[in-house]
Write a structure and sequence with these properties.
Length: 245
């Protein structure tokens, strides 16, 4: 039996008897997040996990060759395409990822479009068979927390950054040292074995005094939602991360 979903086939005969683990994978945002998310999907499928990938048409086209080969090899992967509400959120037609944005001033509208995906994704979730056992999602989908809570399944957040970045971010968030210096004054990140210096102007997101209030609020919501996740998947860089992880 072959199921045809969003022009991608899933060979249900490839699912071993008794296997019921079903991972739902959200693949949107940008290439730097998309590629590892698709790799995660394949790694899970190679371990006898059923994987459903939810992606926009543009993103699905980007990884179709790679995923189609995986499906043809017998892996239980399927792709469901979802409409990205770019125009509805005030973005130009076809802006489905951050690298499509003509200007970073449209970031808040892009995140508004992401929030509009909650209802259609939830409807998809209700119709999936078997029901997913967990959700692996890009951390920017803050509303996944509500879906996971509603259906009582674990959620695992994917963060495209590495352990070194996350440790620096954690230490600065707790110490608030960056708030006690001028924008151009170098300071040493606390709690590290090496001497790492930054200026406040070099910091990312809500740590940077130059970030807009809208972006700071978005990042705050993202961080709060991630704190309730059952796990976090990060990019690893052996040369740096092995010293702190």
């Amino acid at each position: 039996m072959v199921l045809v979903l969003a022009e991608t086939t899933w060979n249900s005969a490839a699912v071993p008897s008794g296997i019921s683990i079903h991972a739902l994978n959200f693949a949107v945002i940008q290439k730097g997040h998309l590629i590892p998310m698709i790799d995660i999907a394949r790694l899970l499928a190679e371990r006898d996990v059923i994987v459903t990938i939810i992606a926009t048409a543009q993103n699905a086209a980007r990884f179709s060759t790679y995923i189609n080969r995986a499906i043809e090899s017998g892996l239980a992967i399927r792709v469901l395409q979802i409409h990205f509400p770019a125009v509805e959120a005030g973005l130009p037609e076809g802006c489905e990822t951050l690298d499509n944005l003509p200007s970073m001033t449209l970031m808040t509208k892009f995140y508004a479009a992401l929030s509009m995906l909650q209802q259609p994704v939830e409807k998809m979730f209700e119709e999936l068979k078997p029901q997913p056992s967990c959700i692996i999602y890009d951390r920017n989908f803050t509303w996944v927390a509500e879906i996971a809570s509603k259906f009582q399944i674990p959620r695992i957040s994917f963060d495209g950054k590495n352990c070194f970045f996350l440790l620096c971010y954690h230490n600065l968030t707790n110490s608030k040292l960056h708030e006690c210096v001028s924008e151009g004054e170098p300071f040493v990140v606390p709690g590290l074995s090496d001497r790492i210096e930054f200026t406040a102007a070099q910091l990312p997101g809500n740590l940077n005094p130059g970030s807009s209030s809208e972006m700071k609020e978005i990042i705050k919501k993202t961080t709060e939602a991630e704190e309730g996740a059952n796990g976090v998947i990060v990019n690893s860089f052996r040369g740096v991360g092995s010293r702190i992880c």
